[in-house]
Structure formats: C-alpha cells, structure tokens
Amino acid sequence: VSAAFWEHLRYLGLQDFPCGLGSWNKSRFDVHRSPSRSQPGQEEAVMLDEESPEVLMELLRDPCSPWALPPDCSSQDQYLREVAVLAPELICGSNIFKVLRTLRIVGKGVEEVDEGLLQLQKLEELILSANQISRINSANLPRTLKVLELCCNAVADLQDLCTQPPPELQHLGLGYNKLRGPSQDKYLTVDFWPNLVSLDLSFNSFTDLLELISQLSSLQKLRILVLQGNPLALIPTYRGFLVDSLPKLSILDDIHIGPDERHQFQGLAKHPELIRSEAQLVVSIGEIKGVPDPSTHQQQEVDSQAPVITYSYCVTYEF
User: How far is the C-alpha of 278 from the C-alpha of 187, rounded, in Å?
Assistant: First the structure.
C-alpha cells in the first residue's frame, strides 16, 4: 500500500505547475528576499512573471482546464492540490504525513498493508476497496483510524486485524470478501471494536444467524448493519429476528428500522426455534431450447401397436 500511495502522489503532481513552488509563485514564498526587492517598482516587475493564487486555483477547479482532476476524483485529492497552491510548504517531504486525513487506494492491486502507513499520523479514513488483500496486520494501521473500508478484497480471516485494532474505529467495511462463520464470528465483539457504529459484512459466507447475533449484541454503539448477500439472509425470519435482537440498530441492509417494524417483530428473539437451518427456493422455467417437443409428434392411434417413446430430463441448478 505504501508503493501505491507514493505512486498516487506522483499522479497528483503536487510539485508541478500550478501546484508546488516554481517560477510562477517564487516571490510569495522566497524567504530570502533582499531589501531591494521590496521596492515598489521592482516588486511589480517580478509579479508580472508570476501568477496570483486566484488564477492558480482557477486552473485546478475549472473542469475545462488541462490541470483539472477527473470528475470522479476524491475530495481529498482536490484538497491536497489546493494546499499545494496556497501553502506548498505543508506538503513538502514528510510534512504531507501531517496533513492527510483520508487515503483512498482503490483497484490498485494492493496485496499487503505495510508499516509505511504508520507515518500518516493523523489518518482517520482508509479506503482500500477492490484490491487483493487477504490478511491485514493491525499493527500497521494508524491508531487514529475511524473508518476502514476493505470491500471487494479476499479477506478470509480477521485474527491479524483484531490483534491490535484501531481503538477509535467507527466503521468497518468487509463486504464482498471470503469470511465464514462461526470461526470469524468471535472477532465481531466489543472486545475488539468498542466504538463501532457501522458494520458491513454483506456478501460473505455467514450461515449461523444465532451465533452471529450473540456476538454482535455486545456492540452497544452499533447502529448500521449490512448482512445481505450472506446465506443466513435467506432464513424466512431473518430480518425480524435481527430487528428484535438488536434493539439499538437503526438501519439494517440499507433500510431504516421504524417503530412500526420494531413493534411488529417484538418478542421474536425469544423464539429461536423459529430460525430454520434451511431455505426454500422456487424456480420457474419459462423456456427450454434444444430438446424435442412431444407435441410435434403425431398422436398415436388408440389401437396402434407402435412402441411408445417417452423422454425424461434432469435439470441441474448451480449456485
């Protein structure tokens, strides 16, 4: 991830025009100016060769400018470039580690979260979606993190992540990974995430609803939970059981939990026998191609001695 981070900074061009220090703004940041430079005539002549901060900022913000970032860039990227115009000394060298609060490295083939991240002393939001991360060493995560998004990776084990988890983390995104219960359920408790408000476990392989709820119930600050896409979500009483078991939950699977729904499922958590370990799926076949149609054959006469030909088929569904 450190390599991807530095590559991203090079892409932003924080040291190149219209950012950074150069002939386009040297008089504003030249701390060694001689007294003669301050004379009105000379000062005006020097400024003729430079650009004002307003002009430089316009070059960054105008969508038609060749120096503008693409429309889908993050607000953090735009912020860094504007800082590089107004106060370039803040992002020179290691100073940038004190400025960054959000780091977004998406779809860069990152496989490892290395200790280089610890240099980001004020990092609060780390987004590493759509990479190839399978394990995360929590010792390499800044302690200041409040948001950790790992959607669409290959995370199958939370043990390393829970060794020294960031104590102030409020959102943990683990959707579209390879997590399975019950071996991973034990890592989803208040012992590891005392301040967790939002948890995304969607599209993994959790199957035991009762065991998962027993662990999640310890997260007293949890308000947002996403479990859709897991096998346990096929259980008929899935939503009602979760709503009644986690009374402080406000949003489940991106749907707000209102007072009426909570009242409707009141008391359901006291009847675990209603949780079935099976699900029913009804498939309707609209059309089949490539097999003989019996209706096209001539109807056999009643007294015919011709043999009767029958066809049977086996249809297999793979999920």
Answer: 25
**Angle, CA of 197, 145 and 131, to the nearest 5°:** 95
Residue 142 pLDDT exceeds 90 = yes
The burial of 208, by beta-carbon neighbours within 10 Å (0-12 exposed, 13-18 middle, 19 or more buried), is given as: middle
pLDDT digits (tens, 9 = 90+) for 274-301: 876 666 678 888 887 877 766 665 555 5
Task: Report the chain's mean pLDDT, rounded to a whole number.
Answer: 87
Interacting residues of 250 by C-beta distance below 8 A, sequence separation 6+: 223, 224, 256, 257
Backbone angles phi, psi at 198, to 5 degrees: -130, 135
- State how far the alpha carbon of 115 is from the alpha carbons of 1, 29, 51, 124, 137, in Å: 9, 34, 40, 16, 9
pTM (predicted TM-score): 0.76
**Angstrom distances, CA of residue 146 to CA of 97, 101, 123, 163, 166:** 17, 10, 8, 17, 8
Burial of 19 (0-12, 13-18, 19+ CB in 10 A): buried
Ranges of each domain in the chain: 1-23+52-99
281 contacts: CB under 8 Å, gap ≥ 6: 234
Encode burial over 256-277: b for 16+ CB neighbours within 10 A, e otherwise.
ebeeebeeebeebbeeeeebee
